[in-house]
Amino acid sequence: MRESIVQIYLLLFRIFYRIFCLLPLRPVTLFWVTYGDNVKPINDALLTEFPKEKRYLVYDKKFVKNPEAWSAEYALPYRRLRFIRLAYLLATSKHLFIDNYIGEYSVAPIRQGTKRIQLWHAAGTLKKFGLTSSRSLMVPKHVLRRFKRVYQRYGDFIVPGEACAKQFMAPHDLHRTVFKTLGVPRTDYWFNEQHQTVKKQLSDIYVKPKRRILLYAPTYREYNGMEGQTVRQLEQLTDQGWTILVKLHPTVRSMFTHQKAHVHFVTDEYSINDYLLITDVLVTDYSSIPFESCLLGVPTVLYTPDIDTYRQIPGIIDSYPDPLPVTCTDQFEIMLNWINSDVSLQESRMAMEQFKTIWYTEQPGQATRRIVDHYYRKVR
């Protein structure tokens, strides 16, 4: 959308938002999500524990494929043409949960008596984003100011721990005080019986005798990546007892077909956290996945044949791959030898298990409970 149109849209949104702020607040929780998987556990907890709490959903239909599963009283696919309805929901809902950048926040100051909560879709970062990304260096100053206004109006920012809070402060130009180290809701089910059914379903499909599972999960790129080449390189591992699962980023779709035995391009029917339940080795690159998979102690390697390009767009953090205790290489042979070394895999497993004690302040598995207690039980 051209900048002039954006400014007109935001002007109209601001006008209606201010009008609707004259109306009384309603006991409504609004979930305004892009991906939804880190927010839905909150929705589900409210559904069972506070059935009188009205829950409304605004969602991106590209990524939220089953909005009916939220059982919300009202579900609205996000479209800018619905700005009047969106402004009304934002202005009159008492609680609001988001998981991404919401441009409308730039013209919608936090109303007194409301609570906004940012449940970001990543538990850490290896890439530069927000104000630290290369894209932010190229936008006009007034656009940069708009970004900052959005960040300042996120409200509380939920993170897994102190180290993540420090990571996220600079990209959002936020003080430490706005970050709440309550955990990552979408990982909770790894620690209760709920995951056993999903694990069995995936095991029945992919786990075979005398074969191990390698999950290749590359991150999003703003250019044509090397995913196809990497998959073809990984093919040789199928002759060494490995089954390859390829989980592309939600914004990416495979542009090539593949039919080799023991190589599977998995669908969005299951989430990345589901597939991690049966994963013996994770291969990724600049993704935030290891900040969560460490909870399962999954051995991890970062394979980065395009690292020079990615350093430019969007950029990676200066300490990369730190803080993750992982092997990083742009040489396939090095990665291949690492994968086939049981010693290396065991060392990585132990390092990831240690890392989770650093990255997660609170005991994993109870993030949803802590968040619901903090924002709902305290006010009742």
In short:
The chain is α/β, with parallel strands linked by helices.
What does this 3D model show about the protein?
The mean pLDDT is 94. It is built from 13 helices and 13 strands. It has 380 residues and is α/β, with parallel strands linked by helices. It folds into two domains: 199 residues, CDP-glycerol glycerophosphotransferase, N-terminal domain (Rossmann fold, 3-Layer(aba) Sandwich), CATH 3.40.50; 167 residues, CDP-glycerol glycerophosphotransferase, C-terminal domain (Rossmann fold, 3-Layer(aba) Sandwich). The chain is 34% helix and 15% strand.
Question: What are the salient characteristics of this protein?
Answer:
single chain; 380 residues; alpha/beta; Rossmann fold; 2 domains; six-stranded parallel sheet; globular; cell membrane; CDP-glycerol glycerophosphotransferase activity; transferase; membrane
